[in-house]
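Replying to the earlier thread about multi-chain prediction with a worked example.

Input:
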Amino acid sequence: MEKLKIASYWASACGGCDVAILDIHEKIVDVANIADIVFWPVATDFKEKDVEGYPDGYIDVTLFHGAIRNSENEHYAQLLRRKSKILVAFGSCAVMGGIPGLANFKKREDILGWVYFESPSTQNKERVLPQTSTPVPEGELTLPSFYEEVKTLGDVVDVDYFMPGCPPAPHQIWAVLQVLASGNLPPKGAVVGASDKALCDECKRVKTEKKVKRFYRTYEIIPDPERCLLEQGIVCMGPVTRGGCGARCTSAHQPCRGCYGPLEGVVDQGAKYISALASIVDANTWEEAQEIIGHIPDPAGTFYRFGLPGSLLRRARNV
Amino acid sequence: MENAGFEPRIIGFLCNWCSYAGADLAGVARLQYPPNVRIIRVMCSGRVDPQFVFKALADGADGVLVAGCHPGDCHYADGNYKTMRRFQLMKKVLAQLGVEEDRVRLEWISAAEGSAFARVIQEFTERLRQLGPFKPGRRLAAGGEG
Amino acid sequence: MRQIVIDPITRLEGHGKISIFLDDTGAVKNVYFQIPELRGFEKFVEGRPSEEVPQIVSRICGV
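Result:
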């Protein structure tokens, strides 16, 4: 059998997804037995021109990490879409915006203003901002344009499969690579490498009755190590988040922040969580509810920690 | 006036047992109110998932009304208490997302309060006319500058 | 003048681009190094609870 050709690319990302691929440890040797890597900036030396030289559809599988923050990200998304038979949105950023998507709470000019003018460690008397084109004595230098908002991979190109997680769990990566190599493919558009059940289903903490009189920030309470964090008043996104990660955070006494994305059938993870969380608030008067809910700092930034660009409203307006 | 000629679109989620009957009464009693509301009947205001509200705003509504039975009157005992709590949390999230406070409204309207329904729609339409159209972030086609 | 562009710079975390300009004899005239990426963590952690920031900024670099 001819070897598969695989590519891995990062757009607006941190490289954690690439490291997660390496976290399959010695099985990476098995991957090398069945597949050739034809583009992987973190680990190999292929250039953009090499990819451009490939015939369309030459790459069997591209694992695309990272959000679409600038025109270069979008350019690579389109290039790799054209060159790939299967394009996988790999990791929370590509699937729904991820942590870089938190920038959709801010305006483009405010981000640039802070980074290039206002931050205390910046010295920029001439108020120079990056330009898409800069003439220099020897010729011209170019940079990508910084978009108004962060987008998901699916916003700019057609995506075959979505694999959530920040980063995806290595055992899931290995399972998905085996499925892709087998040729026995799931239906287009499927979420792969994740469970159809909520995180709570695989979280080992004991769940009894959910009625919350007070919410706590993580530093305000030492949680009972056995009991459900949400029942103890710690905001945990488990009820609306897909499982499949192995409940890594809740096992370490940290609440879930939703990186595996919305549960099957849920369109908007944050909006669904409003519903779930408010339901367990133990208050029947407006004032009492207001007091309890007032103890949740930054609800939008928590409920949309990983998925603001992929949500229904996509971004904050006029703020 | 900046928003002259602007006709706001309101999506109204009304509970089957009280508010929908209240809206019906407004019609039967021939009360005048602006035709800007599109009503969706739900069995209980507690059925209104915040996703419905977000979806309405994302798909072109300028305002969303959620209306149910007065506290204590819920046909299902406590559905409207859930609505009340969800609505508070939803408003906090919407505020962080830059959605003006007055674009979503919660009202308790009983089956006998046709006049209250007409008044709410009147007030809400006027307020939204002042606020102007809601512009959700559009899913842009590839190549756009986002 | 001839220009050699190395893009992307590989086998490191992050995005980088090098433009090398050569004169008529093929000698290096000038070299420019550019970072074509920005996410703006400095700005978007504003408004997030302080106890959440360590988990957010750990996504600056995951390598």
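The CA atoms of residues 11 and 56 of chain B lie 7 Å apart.

Feel free to reuse this layout for your own posts.
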